[in-house]
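Explain the record.
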Amino acid sequence: MNNRKWWQRIPIFGVLLAFLLVFGTGFTQIAGAADPPPAHPVGGDPTGAASAYSTANSNPLVIDDVLKGVTDPAVKSAFGEMYKLTINDRAAINMVWMLVTGFMVFFMQAGFALVEVGFCRAKNAAHTMTMNLMVFCIGVVGWYICGFAFMFGGLGSTATLGDTAGLSWATGEWSIGGFDLIGTKGFFLGGDFYDVSVLTFFLFQMVFMDTAATIPTGSTSERITWKGFLLMGLWVSMFIYPIVGNWVWGGGWLADMGVRWQLGHGAVDFAGSGVVHEIGGAVALAGALAIGPRIGKYGPNGEVRAIPGHNMPLAILGTIILFFGWFGFNPGSTFGATDLRIANVAVTTMIAGGFGGIAAMFRMWIFEGKPDPGYSVNGVLAGLVAITAPCAFVNPTQAAIIGILAGGWVCDAGLTIERKLKIDDPVGAIAVHFCNGCWGLIATGIFADGTYGDGLNGVKGTVKGILMGDSSQLIAQFIDAIVIAVVVFVASFIFFKVADALVGLRVAPEIELAGLDVPEMGIWGYPDPEASFSGGLPTPVRVNQDGVIMTSQQQQQE
């Protein structure tokens, strides 16, 4: 352990943060005000605004201006056909963009699987990996039956595929006292929902939902029953995610706070720090509390015992895959490649993830003695989670600040959850997704720089945080974070208690000790976890080929 005093360790982290806060944000704002950015030959301006792009390139989107004074019907008709072709091409480009980025987000499922199995013990590898596969399959079923309808069935129209009202269908929203709460159309993708633009949107939003559904598999791993896991997947995909998500992304009451109460633009969450990660993290927190810690995690006097995972290289590889997938997760949320803000979104995503990993590494190295690989992994993920809400509304320097704070926050939150609150979360899902999902929402209300978001949630003007003079946006973000945390946690905790009474939520102690692979899945993830990994079967507990715990005498006879 490093013998340096705590006060000798602070400057490394503190000076870096102070530099970014003072010289980063401050200098950027001052320099930007004194010396406006030059005109760009492509894109019009650094915001990537579609209007600037169109004007700079004489795009047919300004067809009305081009045809002013033209009276010949043949000329107007010819230009009209060209305009239609251009619109169709733009819609096709944007549909492909949404589909490809959706495929990238789906590949994140492999990243989650590797992270979780790496943090868990070898005796639970098959169970953990199969959960990460089947949660997607369960999600497809639940999302198709009613999840998509509950979340988006009342939207009426959302972002366009190009410059047409491409995503538009019959509205249907259940409201109480004028508060929109849940969609009522689109079950089984029937009726007006059988449309290529809607199906594109369905796929893209499906993989986002599955990210939320996957998060609690990590916090409950190594002790949840297969039946309990199946019910949990249906709970997230059919009910809690789509209903609460409707309030923010489906045109519900949290999104309406800007129009109804003049709180900024209402709840602003560009790619899902709150909708995806905080919801998934709140379910993970409820599940971990309801199911209890793993056997041996805490001693009789409350002392914390480390239960190391069996393969850190897998966890690191999974993180790299997740980082790659986030370049679909966030930029894809523009819903179109013709929204040139995708460049800003991609860069802020990259910067926050990188700074989050660096911050967590130094946080553990300075205060705990070693640059812990596990917390470094979660620092990267924390930075990515935190930037997911504000990625389109902040500049690169602000993204670095958000990532640094996320990296430090995930370490403090993770250690507090494990050591003080005595909540056992094998992969750190609660600290990464719940805690930094909240931080991402708050960061939007602090740092949004007013360069993007005009008209978002029906409010004129761009999105501005408190540093740009709009304190009401920060209030809206706090309300959003608190509502998600309270509603999702309470509802999910009740769900887990009911599921426990119905099917049993936790495996028997002897199965947990032996490992869930054979008793629950009928097969080992590895042929010989005892011999191959230190995280394998604990001696003297073993099971026979039928999954039955063997006595010491039976083991000796064998």
